Amino acid sequence: MRWDNLTRDDTAATPALFAADAVTTRTFDTPEFRGITFHEIRARSIVNRVPGASRMPFEWTVNPYRGCTHACVYCFARKTHGYLDLDTGIGFDSQIVVKTNAPELLRRELASRRWTGEHIAMGTNVDCYQRAEGRYRLMPGILTALTERANPFSILTKGTLILRDLELLRRASRVTDIGVSVSVGFTDGELWRTVEPGTPSPERRLDVVRTLSTHGIPCGVLMAPVIPFLSDSPEQLRATVRAIAEAGASSVTPLVLHLRPGAREWFTAWLTRHHPRLLRRYDALYEGGSYAPKWYQRRITGMVHDFAAEYGIGPYAPGTHRNVPEKPDARPEDARPEDAHSEDARPEEEPGARADSPPAQLSLL
To answer: Over 80: is that where the pLDDT of 320 sits?
Structure first.
């Protein structure tokens, strides 16, 4: 594994991410973690700047994990595992890097007088509520640190584990702007089992939407990805939008599958095994690059918006900002979040949106 380039070295051309002796590798012989290896590290930074060329509407992210047991075959973040010389296919699904000091590091970086309280997005690279979070419990400390500073944030997830932190989310919503979005691209059970094998079912994710909404936390749905020729028929789109509306979602925003390098190869291998008849159609649809043609995206967006209007929901509309209390004056100067973005900007947050990354309106719920 390529740990050497990521350790402390004053002569290195790029900042170190963690110390070599700070890596602990563990496996757990329990059903939920069988076959998964965890690499526990003490990261040197946690508040990460998104590269300037990115399409994302936010500048800062927090990613407590690398790799994701959700194992979505289309996941944009697969390519980032190659930076550690880890396999971007099975390795991405089963070799999980855990930043065990994320909560304490975040608390220190938010306390820097150079930090001015910008919006922080989570779940934009890999899911912060993936299965590993059930064991490592990093998010309660992260949410508490953000709440203590009344720092606005948003979360995008496919994980039902977010309900464990319901009271923390409610507490945060009283002092700052928060946004929660759940990713549900389709409701086809057979497609879900093969394309998103490590995730909770679409029905369970919609239960998350329902529960959050019931407890006063508006929850939007990122309908992503819409998968060409597999989940994009008018009947399928209507059924998905109807289920989203019935769950009480505050909004629905569609996003068509995009296939950037790294994800494209793994998705194509999956397509070859499960739907070989579609290979030529995908080659034609994506011959222009990573994204489906604009005409196709507009067609999907138009249908979803029409169905959403029919069922009484629509795309996100900005609401009223909450009053954020003044932050404490006394702040230590030892943390420098503006210098702390190298870890994930190189390469976790590459330019462009992840396959299920939120557009501007969902990121800023």
So the answer is: no
Residue 7 DSSP code: S
- Cα gap 132→36, rounded to integer Å: 10
Q: Is the pTM of this model over 0.85?
A: no
Mean pLDDT taken over the chain: 83
Q: How far apart are CA 178 and CA 363, in angstroms?
A: 9
Q: Are 315 and 305 in contact (CB under 8 A)?
A: yes
- CA–CA distance from 357 to each of 37, 147, 298 (Å)? 26, 23, 18
pLDDT at 93: 92
CB 115 within 8 A of CB 62: no
CA angle 229, 252, 215 (to 5 degrees): 135
Give the whole-angstrom CA distance, residue 340 versus residue 45: 5
Are 70 and 130 contacting, i.e. CB atoms less than 8 angstroms apart?
yes
Cα 236 to Cα 187: distance, rounded to the nearest angstrom: 8
Cα–Cα distance between 51 and 348 in angstroms, integer? 10
At how many degrees (to 10) do helices 166-173 and 202-214 cross? 40
Strand, coil or helix: what is 223?
strand
Q: Which bin fits 67, alpha (ψ -120 to 50), beta or left (φ > 0)? A: left
* Bond preceding residue 225 cis, omega within 30 of 0: yes
Distance CA 341, CA 365 (A): 24
Kindly tell me the number of DSSP H helices and DSSP E strands found in the chain: 14, 11
Neighbours of 271 (CB within 10 A): 22
Q: How far is CA 314 from the centre of its chain?
A: 22
